[in-house]
Specification:
This protein has 277 residues and is mainly alpha-helical. The protein is 59% helix and 6% strand. The longest helix is centred in the C-terminal third of the chain and has 27 residues. 40% of the residues are buried.
Amino acid sequence: MRDASVGFQCPDCVREGVKATRSARTPYGGTRPGNPTLTTAVLIGINVVVWLALLVTGGRGGRLYELLALMPDGLCRSVSAPSDYYPSITSSGACAQLNGDGDWVAGVAGGAPWQLVTSMFTHVEWWHIAFNMLALWVIGPQLELALGRARFVALFLLSGLAGSTAVLWLSDPLGGTVGASTAVFGLFGALLVVGLKVGGDVRPILTLLGINVLITVVGSSFISWQGHLGGLLGGVAVAAVLVYAPRTRRTTYQVAGLALVTLVLAGLIVARVLLLA
């Protein structure tokens, strides 16, 4: 790895990006960004704004958290005893009939599908957002330089969606999950794919990934290994579509591949919602 203004760089990945500096295109077909840190900075800004909004609205116990955090299923909370809920009530209509003691908290299967996306921009603890934003700042600009802005945004969002899908299937249906680490793990996976594509030394990337996997395993009681695993696999899949697409009609193959990934994730999401309904 090489020291850089954003933390470190994969020399082979950067070298591949430099090949296109005299062109308006990146090595994998995207428009070459004039400022490869811009998209990453915008993503960090969104996360910080949401974090600050949560701080002033009650944090984990506030209504905004309940709207943004990913909870696979909905639950009917007791108004008189907010720490309790009615396990036999599985719909907002039934919850509303509890003589004022029912407060419906929607999950993805309970009427809040937006949580699949909003959760990847949501943090509560300062150390959580600090760690994720540092990782995003270190890795993001390298991938944007190699892929281009639109492809980088697609990578981030689809990695996060893949992580959310894994949480939807593998986590406690009534548990809340937040954090950009679903997408960040996707970026780890994508950086590995790019390194392999250019034939570079991927041992530093594997070391970085291994450290983060170890942290996930050790902290599995409060860290979503489900989201990290889904995000990693999603990032690998998306990056493979982008960097291994044939040069002839590259954009067509990339769009078709990303559409296929999206359809697979959508199918998994719909299937899980139907099971929880």
